[in-house]
Amino acid sequence: MPIREWASLDEDARDLLLSRPQPRDRAARRAEVVRLIDQVRIDGDHTLRLLTRRFDGVELQRLTVTDAEFDEAVAAIPDDLAAAIREAIGRVRQFHAETAPKPQVVQTAPGVRCERVYRGLDTVGLYVPAGSAPLPSTAIMLGVPAALAGVGRVVLCSPPNKAGRVDPTVLFVARELGIHLVCKLGGVQAIAAMAYGTESVPKCAKIFGPGNSYVTEAKMVVAADLEGAAIDMPAGPSEVLVVADRGANPAFVAADLLSQAEHGPDSQVMLLSPCPDLLKAVCVEVDKQVATLSRSDVATQALQNSRAVLVDSLAEAVALSNRYAPEHLILAVRDPQALMPLVRHAGSVFLGDYAPESVGDYCSGTNHVLPTAGMARAYSGVSVLSFQTAITVQQLTREGLAAIGPCAIRLAEAEGLQAHANAVRVRMEAL
Question: Does pLDDT of 266 surpass 90?
């Protein structure tokens, strides 16, 4: 990780320093994604089987997981892993239950009662990746808030392995959360199936979950189609930005950077600090630790897209972080709470030396499905509200209409909407 000095860069160089890795041939990729989606829309399950054979290397007769496969998966999970999964589910459920939106009632005038109520979506699709590594933690992060939101039906899609099976830990999580329909599907074909429906996969109102660049592109395509499905957010390659001061532990910081670098070669990690000695020490630690990782080749590729930046102050570091809008932000500083008021754009924030990003990925309680690629400027991570719609309600008494009716009439007349005004006026006259 080369160290760059922010103060020495012109504006163009600064923009380049804070840029994400750009995927090659995006136009060609989008065209391929659209073509695959159209094939699924036309031929349904037949195309799903063909694409699963092509991309996953396995021939499937049945696209959904059977009860016997569920039972085998549950039986295969070691007791300590089962306990860890249940422990994580408990904390994620507690956090999401306590932060879920609550119905609200407001009297805006005597006799005028306004409410906001929440309803779970009818059918949602959860995408759980399993490319270079299965992610049962994603099944937890999506399945728990879906259940709390009161969703009518949950469909979970995850790619099959060479034996035609979904990862057993993903199936164990699904069983724990009461998700009964799991489909052996990955990639673009899974997103298309959930967006438009096939013989085996119900059409979903909204699709959730992270994925590679093709999955993200597919989500964007179906979200732009009125006949497709809504999506949670554009959630692509993982990223972390660490702000560190002189007292930060270089080994801790290096480990945090590598925990995201190992996700994939298109991941990006950033380190900002006003302390040159700390930057150098972390870079040494990164080189030392990356050599010990089982996924060192992946992490090494990701580090080629990564940056270590010398800034003038911690405040400037946070300002740069806001400009970058990271998926994960770690404040490895002596007084992280003092910097929190400055943080405006981040998916999830980790404070101090003992809050590694990994705990947010698994078991602190917050959600790890977060906006990437700078989308934290406008999007939030997954929550219970993500699986709900909010409905406003109003009820007026005779006195309430008498009180606010003249206001409505005058505004309607100002807009030239006579029927709007008449809908109030005829009632006012009846009073």
Answer: no
Catalytic residues: 327-328
Of 305 and 168, the structure prediction assigns the larger pLDDT to 168
329 DSSP 8-state letter = E
Alpha-carbon gap, residue 385 to 146, rounded angstroms: 9
With bands split at pLDDT 50, 70 and 90, how would you rate the model's confidence at 132?
low
**Which residue, chain included where needed, has tokens 């990690």?**
269
Q: How far is CA 74 from CA 79, 89, 91, 305, in A?
A: 10, 16, 21, 39
Look at the alpha carbons of 83, 89, 92, 96 in this order and tell me if their dihedral is positive or negative: negative
Q: Using the 8-state DSSP alphabet, how is residue 61 labeled?
A: S
Q: 408 and 427 in contact (C-beta within 8 Å)? A: no
pTM of the model as a whole: 0.93
Q: Where are the alpha helices (DSSP H) in 295-397?
A: 296-303, 314-324, 336-339, 357-362
Strand extents, DSSP E, 110-188: 112-120, 123-127, 153-158, 181-184
Residue 130 pLDDT > 90: no
CB 400 within 8 A of CB 240: no
Question: 17 near 23, Cβ under 8 Å?
Answer: no
